[in-house]
Design a protein that fits this description.
The protein has 5 domains: 44 residues; 220 residues, no CATH class; 205 residues, no CATH class; 95 residues, no CATH class; 46 residues. The protein has 25 helices and 16 strands. The strands form 5 sheets. It has a 5-stranded mixed beta sheet with strand order 3-2-1-4-9. Strands 6, 7, 8 and 14 form a 4-stranded mixed beta sheet that branches. β6 and β7 form a beta hairpin. The radius of gyration is 35 Å and the shape is flat. GO terms for molecular function: UDP-N-acetylglucosamine-lysosomal-enzyme N-acetylglucosaminephosphotransferase activity. Pfam families: Notch, Stealth_CR1, Stealth_CR2, Stealth_CR3, Stealth_CR4.
């Protein structure tokens, strides 16, 4: 009783003190709440979406893997998949230069690196059998087939960085190097897709001029530029026709061009296209060789630009009545070509297969998005979006299934990164006329003011604006306003344009959204020039050499040492060392393996958190062994927890039964 009274007095005194200081306590709670919300707001402003990293890895030195591959292909060469510890040093570089990565997933055929610390919370090994949609096609030894299902990893971030194990980081890498909200994903391009035939680059295909040496199945029959009956639209014949046209063209004196005389504009033009075809023959009359002869070409981009301009000029001079291949015939030729590609010999080298698969993928893109000279991606890490991958695979569903069904790399494989970024850059979305109208309606008045009309004309016509363009626009709007029955709209909707938004001499009627949508000429101009947009945001980085080093690891020791020194001299963000050793030179290859190990250690000598300590070795060599151990561990934990719960319940029950005895002893002790 004495102790109870003592505790009661203490609680009463403490409560009185709290009442005296309640204002101070309330003020402190408010300050803490404000600090919490301000800190939360700052963290949300600087929030960056999590990005995971996905590796594809295989240990080609494993005898079990080699035997499994040779069961499906007796001519299998294990040299390509030989493990040289590239993944270990790539993970070291990732921890050093990209610590912001949330998680690392290693996609394997069931193998586990002996040095990998499976207890580290930031790494997970994922076998193919958990990801593929067709388990009956396993095992697969094709990287192209594996890449078709890497986005199906459970709990993978929306955007993830895909890295090959032969790529390591040599400089700090930031998320802004891969993606920004303003620019979208950054694309690092390299060389152009290999030519479909000798002296037949992809810039010649579908350019409107018949190139005889490109009129073959491998080049998709020049994109339909040559018909089956033999067209006279070859480059030489078109040059002769151009020369004849040039002789009959009457040149306009420069003094007349510089005078106030102007051409009457009576149409809405197409932006970014050559508009005046009357003098195109005069401007493009030089032969291509003569055109290039007088150019100081220092880069491949300049040559490509000249070729593209020259081809577009030839196309503008082509006759409209020339016979061309029909769409059905062109589609049949493409399908026939794709079937012929599938019959390519299986004994080709991996480099030849890679080149042919690039050509096959480019032909597929030509069929969907038109003929175009495309660039292969540089050897860097690829930031991929899972939603875009799903959309891409849905569009090329048949070709993805064919790629997935190939156990080994084949010429009819889809090159994953190439088709992904080409799809991303080629997909478009179309706005309605009303949505385009709202973009020009900057003051949200539901009408176009004279200033907004000026903006529309400046984006439509070449600068400086000709007065005839303004008069033509006024005539179109006046005719549409007079001819179309707008009375019903005016009864319900009265639009007033502010006085300061109209020029003093303006005679243009009120341009409403309904007027623009129902005016055929104006609606077609908006649809043609402004409605089509890129569906996804992207930014092509022109200076790829700033971020990328590429080296081919050959059996030539001198070249290998020289290549290592070049990377040592200037390491980039992404550095790729591609294995291309000659399998017959065993002694040289062994020496090069030691040189490669020494090269990696010069950059990353310290053990990363992904690795076990050097004196330890992973006890699990396969994913199945690891899962079997985890099941046993979980079973042991369940048994242990169950026994602990039963013991606790037994103790509680015993205390409840004998509680009077314990209380009596406690009171007696007091």
């Amino acid at each position: 009783m004495r102790i109870q009274r003592k505790w009661g007095r203490m609680l009463k005194n403490n409560w009185k003190r709290l009442r005296r200081r309640r204002l101070l306590i309330i003020f402190g709670a408010i300050v803490l709440a404000l600090m919490f919300f301000v800190r939360k707001k700052k963290s949300s402003d600087t929030y960056c979406e999590p990005i995971d990293v996905v590796y594809t890895w295989v240990n080609g030195s494993d005898p079990m893997f080699t035997d499994s591959a040779r069961r499906y292909n007796p001519n299998y060469d294990p040299a390509r998949f030989d493990d040289k510890n590239e993944l270990r040093y790539s993970l070291r570089s990732l921890e050093m230069y990209a610590p912001w990565v949330r998680h690392v997933y290693i996609v394997t055929n069931g193998q586990i690196p002996y040095w990998l610390d499976l207890s580290f919370e930031k790494v997970t090994v994922v076998p193919h059998e958990l990801l593929t949609t067709k388990p009956e096609l396993l095992p697969t030894f094709s990287s192209s087939a594996i890449e078709t299902f890497i986005h199906r990893i459970p709990h993978l971030s929306q955007r993830f960085l895909y890295l090959n194990d032969d790529i390591f980081l040599g400089a700090p890498l930031y998320p802004e190097d891969l993606y920004t909200n303003s620019e979208g994903v950054r694309i690092y391009q390299a060389w152009m897709v290999p030519d479909c035939a000798e002296d037949c680059p992809w810039t010649y295909i579908g350019d409107g001029a018949c190139d005889r040496h490109c009129n073959i199945a491998k080049c998709q029959y020049d994109g339909g530029d040559c018909n089956t009956f033999g067209s006279d639209r070859s480059e030489e014949n078109m040059m002769e026709q151009q020369i004849d046209v040039n002789k009959n063209v009457k040149l306009i004196p420069q003094s007349v061009l510089n005078s106030s005389t102007h051409i009457e504009i009576r149409h809405f033009p197409l932006r970014k296209r050559f508009r005046n075809r009357k003098y195109s023959a005069q401007r493009n009359g030089l032969h291509f060789r003569e055109l290039v002869l007088h150019k100081n070409l220092s880069t491949l981009a300049e040559l490509r630009r000249i070729v593209d301009n020259y081809n577009s000029q030839l196309k503008s001079n082509s006759h409209a009545n020339d016979p061309v291949l029909s769409t059905d015939t062109l589609q049949k030729n493409m399908v026939r070509l794709e079937k012929s590609v599938e019959k390519t010999s299986k004994n080709e080298s991996s480099k030849d297969i890679y080149s042919h698969s690039l050509i096959y993928t480019n032909m597929l893109l030509n069929r969907f998005y038109g003929f175009k000279a495309r660039n292969v991606l540089a050897h860097v890490g690829f930031l991929l979006d899972r939603n875009i991958i799903y959309a891409m695979q849905q569009k090329f569903l048949t070709e993805v299934d064919v790629t997935l069904s190939n156990r080994f790399r084949s010429t009819n494989d889809l090159q994953f990164a190439f088709i992904y970024y080409s799809f991303l850059m080629s997909e478009t979305t179309t706005l309605t006329v009303g949505e385009v109208f709202d973009e020009f309606d900057t003051d949200d008045s539901h009408t176009w003011s004279d200033r907004e009309v000026r903006t529309f004309l400046a984006r439509m016509y070449p600068l400086p604006l000709d007065w005839s363009a303004v008069r033509f626009f006024e005539e179109v709007v006046s005719n549409c306003s007079r001819d179309l029955d707008m009375a019903s709209h005016k009864i319900h909707n009265e639009y007033t344009t502010l006085v300061y938004e109209r020029y003093e001499d303006s005679t243009v009627p009120t341009i409403t959204r309904e007027l623009v949508e129902q005016c055929r000429l104006l609606a077609e101009a908006l649809e043609t020039n402004f409605a089509t947009r890129s569906k996804y945001k992207f930014n092509i980085i022109p200076k790829r050499a700033i971020h990328n080093n590429f080296m081919m690891l050959t059996s030539n020791i001198t070249d290998v040492v020289d290549g290592f020194d070049k990377i040592r001299r200037n390491p980039r963000k992404f550095n790729c060392i591609n294995d291309n050793l000659e399998p017959l030179l065993v002694e040289d290859n062994e020496l090069i393996r030691h040189l490669l190990e020494d090269f990696y250690l010069s950059f990353f000598p310290r053990r990363s958190s992904f690795e076990l300590q050097f004196e330890y070795r992973n006890r699990f060599t396969t994913w199945h062994d690891y899962q079997r151990w985890r099941r046993r561990k979980r079973a042991a934990l369940v048994v242990g927890y169950a026994a602990s719960v039963i013991l606790i319940l037994f103790i509680v029950r015993y205390i409840c039964i004998h509680k009077t005895k314990f209380v009596r002893r406690y009171v007696q002790s007091l």
